[in-house]
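Table S5 (text form). Sequence records supplied for joint modeling of the two-component complex.
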Amino acid sequence: MPERWERDLDKLDLLEPPPGLPDRIGETREHGIDRRPMRRIAIITTSFVIFALAGSFAWTALRPARTPTTTPAAQSQLPDVGQITCQKGGATTSTPRFQVQPDGVHFAVDNEAGLDEVVIVGQSGLVGRYAADIDLSQATVAHYAMLPPGDVLVGCYPDARLGLHDEDLPADGMVAMTIEDPSGSYVSGELDCQGTEVDDIGSVFEASDSSSPEDILRSALSGMKPSDAIERTGYLAFRQEPIGTHGDARLRIVREGRVIGAALVTVRDGVGSGIQMAQVCSDSGLTTRKA
Amino acid sequence: MDDTITKPTDPSRTEVERLFHQVGAELWRAVFVFTGGRRAVAEDAVSEAFTRAIEHWGEIKDPRAWLYRVAFRIASAEMKHERRPLPTGWADEGGAAIDEVLPILDALKSLPPNQRTAIVLHYRMDMSVRDIAHVLGITVATTKVHLHRGRNRLRQMLGSEESPDA
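The corresponding structure-token record, covering 457 residues in total, follows.
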């Protein structure tokens, strides 16, 4: 006998797709073209801001006052863009080791074989295997603000391969690359929950006058200790980016050197603010105030 | 504008339209739930996925899996660019029968996106764990964790009401 939640799932069939949906098949490209100029402007604007931020932080990072984890000579030897060449026999790279930039990981693709997509897979402990792709019909450069440093596998594929399973991908010739982070730009949001469960906290979204993502997170959770530290995660440029009245921040909660929680906090002026999603170690005692 | 598609009457379109009648509605529902009720995003993602299927029809080996993967990828990309907050309700989303569906929609919305999507794909669309992992771009192990946690959360919120011999 199915449980109640399973029976309720069956009711999803009552949801009716928009009646005009079938008519849009084949027409979406036209609709998409109408939207693309605005999207291009948005992308260009965003890229410009990110580029300016990256330049600013790169300048800061190169100052001698910093304390790098590797020697400056070692840093300068590493390229800061991962170069991928898509050939018929598979992907190759001239940069098997490269380093992050202050705003994340950058790739550039030389699409010799005229393929459709680059797939990048790596390891991220919080969510398992990280997977990303570059749609080569749209761009041959890509920037990932959430891809952690570490080892990744990269492959090039025709679009139709999207229907296959991940396990089939390496057969087509993926290439291994190592992303270095010599200046320690990346702060991980991975939880230190060894020996305990990870609890998911759903969205807590309501009107709020809280000004900072840190205040929003602290007010949304119970079980926080005064000594618990809330820190931004991700790459340097985004950790230092002001959120203001409209933006998202990824945060982690550190208790006695242990990461016990991670959250995506959204700030929307005039609409409300809150946690879009969060995970906590089950032994942390953290929960939402509404729970 | 040269690449504008104007509904070609080729065999691929006929096949894709037939496929739409088979899986179009269920795909839209899955993307609708995944996006937390963003009706426009779900509609764009599904129609765009089918349009791309026409273009690549001869190369696609598993059309259903392909459509799911592409539609979810498009929806994910749309949401990354979207600046609006999550819709606060479902009242104007999904047609007239919304009242009956509201409890499960509200319960699903309280789950993280990948968790609620894994639940719907597995228990409503009969999709395998392996296929769900591919659709969401995550590992099989992570998918199993999402299913386990999602089940527990739904039981807590909606009750299990299991039969004595279940």
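Note: Residues 28-71, 124-129, 161-168 of chain A have pLDDT under 50 and may be disordered.
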